[in-house]
């Protein structure tokens, strides 16, 4: 590829206008509801729940975190907290949000208490991916109400932090600077047609009530500030399923003015929707969930992302769900170690965390693959491909293709039995083609006939070498 062509290609990808699109949902190895994005340094972290499809309710037990520096390849950081992390929690690891303050990370969660209601808690860490620890050993907010769900947190320019939350009713408290205590009263935000589109009957989360009312605040608030305006996005309801709506204010505590829908009811295959909004590398993004991942539904929801542009007056346009998702705003470097769990799209494989905390691609089966988007090979071709792999049985084959599943095969590794599913060995293979510029990579998994249906090998990381 000529130099000018390579530079044009890199520019197209970095400017986010790539025609090479990711697919929604952005994570396929787990069900990832209630996405809460956080920008920290040069990465986006997304904190999610963990749905277990097959049940008929949100019986969730843990939370997950993923990160990306390009918006299309997401690295799995496992599950740093679960119900077990909070001695007071017994069930329903529901929506959560993490925020950084003075180098510490505060992950606000909600869960069902041993007293059988919902409460808010907070875990703290020195890094966005943990390890996190329950900061208090008890809930941060507990009023004996089922409404205590879906915390959202924001620190204003004057240093005052606000925690909003609530199902049916919307509440807030002013957090103290330590982020793990609060002062003053819990304030219930008045709801009206002017502020949130309507007023809704209160309900318990167990209720099957499905009111046919115009748009109203239901749950899932997402509180933030942009260009001097305060925003309260929320899961609203008008036709039975949840949509995303929003209100704006000139003050962090209202009064709020209803602005309409951000994402109307669409064929999501999920009763709920739940979103978060960020700006990253000059673009604005809406994170939300759907039940559209194969095997999913209302209790198997997965994170999706759309890019959007604010209107000149700060209002938000109506955003449609897409399968294509967003363009890449960065390029993974082919010559740096990349974790195998950094994935744009995955089929017939999962990710697992070892007892020592190592995360790797597991449950790899014949016919499966991993796609990594927009990998930058630069101006000179690599000579070697290396990968860290392990297999407790007969292994299989790892083929590396570029540009499409059936594109040129640039390397292939025969993975033997390595002595155990955690007995990692580094394999190196000559690269068959001259590759420069930016390419999507496809790691394609194959087994022998005899091993076709079972796990082939585990995959920890990969790298190209000049
Ligand atoms: O994920 C469980 C609950 O469903 C969340 O807390 C709500 O926002 C809804 O998405």
UniProtKB/TrEMBL annotation:
GO annotation (BP), single: xylan catabolic process
Keywords: Carbohydrate metabolism, Glycosidase, Hydrolase, Polysaccharide degradation, Signal, Xylan degradation
A family per Pfam: Glyco_hydro_43
Domain CBM6, chain residue ranges per copy: 336-465
Site note Important for catalytic activity, responsible for pKa modulation of the active site Glu and correct orientation of both the proton donor and substrate, residues: 150
InterPro entries linked to this entry: CBM6 (IPR005084), Cellulose-bd_IV (IPR006584), Galactose-bd-like_sf (IPR008979), Glyco_hydro_43 (IPR006710), Glyco_hydro_beta-prop_sf (IPR023296), Glycosyl_Hydrlase_43_Enz (IPR052176)
Keyword Hydrolase belongs to the record: yes
PROSITE patterns from the UniProt entry: CBM6
Gene Ontology molecular functions: carbohydrate binding; hydrolase activity, hydrolyzing O-glycosyl compounds
Protein family (similarity comment): Belongs to the glycosyl hydrolase 43 family.
PANTHER family referenced in this protein's UniProt entry, alphabetically: ENDO-1,4-BETA-XYLANASE, PUTATIVE (AFU_ORTHOLOGUE AFUA_2G04480)-RELATED
Protein name: Family 43 glycosylhydrolase
Organism: Arcticibacter tournemirensis
């Amino acid at each position: 590829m000529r130099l000018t062509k390579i530079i044009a290609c890199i520019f197209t990808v970095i400017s986010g206008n790539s025609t090479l699109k990711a697919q929604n949902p952005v994570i396929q190895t787990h069900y990832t509801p209630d996405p809460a994005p956080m920008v920290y340094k040069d990465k986006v972290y997304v904190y999610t729940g963990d749905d277990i499809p097959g049940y008929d309710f949100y019986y969730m037990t843990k939370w997950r975190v993923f990160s990306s520096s390009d918006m299309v390849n997401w690295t799995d950081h496992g599950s740093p907290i679960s119900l077990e992390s909070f001695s007071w929690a017994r069930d329903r690891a529901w929506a959560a949000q993490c925020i950084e303050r003075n180098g510490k990370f505060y992950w606000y969660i909600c869960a069902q208490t041993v007293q059988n209601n919902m409460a808010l808690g907070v875990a703290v860490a020195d890094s966005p991916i943990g390890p996190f620890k329950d900061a208090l050993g008890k809930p941060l907010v507990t009023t004996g109400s089922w409404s205590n769900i879906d915390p959202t947190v924001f620190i204003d320019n004057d240093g005052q932090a606000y925690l909003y939350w609530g199902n049916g009713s919307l509440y807030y408290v002013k957090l103290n600077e330590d982020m793990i205590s609060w002062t003053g009263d819990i304030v219930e935000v008045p709801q009206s047609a002017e502020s949130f589109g309507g007023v809704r009957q209160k309900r318990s989360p167990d209720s099957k009530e499905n009111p046919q009312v115009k748009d109203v605040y239901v749950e899932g608030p997402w509180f933030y500030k942009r260009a001097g305006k305060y925003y309260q996005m929320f899961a609203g309801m008008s036709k039975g399923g949840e949509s995303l709506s929003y209100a704006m204010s000139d003050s962090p505590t209202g009064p709020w003015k209803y602005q309409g829908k951000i994402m109307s009811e669409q064929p999501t295959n999920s009763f709920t929707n739940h979103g978060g909004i960020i700006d990253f590398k000059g673009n604005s993004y809406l994170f939300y969930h759907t039940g559209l991942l194969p095997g999913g539904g209302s209790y198997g929801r997965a994170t999706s992302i759309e890019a959007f542009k604010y209107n000149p007056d700060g209002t938000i346009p109506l955003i449609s769900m897409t399968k294509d998702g967003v363009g890449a705003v960065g390029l993974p470097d082919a010559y740096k170690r990349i974790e195998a769990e950094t994935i744009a799209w995955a089929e017939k494989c999962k990710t697992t965390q070892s007892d020592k905390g190592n995360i790797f691609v597991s449950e790899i089966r014949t016919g499966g693959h991993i796609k990594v988007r927009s990998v930058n090979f630069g101006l000179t071709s690599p000579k070697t491909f290396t990968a860290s792999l392990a297999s407790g049985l007969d292994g299989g084959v790892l083929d590396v293709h570029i540009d499409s599943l059936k594109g040129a095969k640039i390397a292939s590794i025969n993975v033997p039995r390595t002595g155990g599913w955690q007995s990692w060995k580094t394999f190196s293979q000559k690269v068959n083609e001259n590759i420069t510029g930016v390419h999507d990579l496809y790691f394609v998994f194959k087994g022998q006939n005899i091993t076709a249906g079972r796990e082939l090998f585990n995959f920890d990381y990969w790298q190209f070498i000049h």
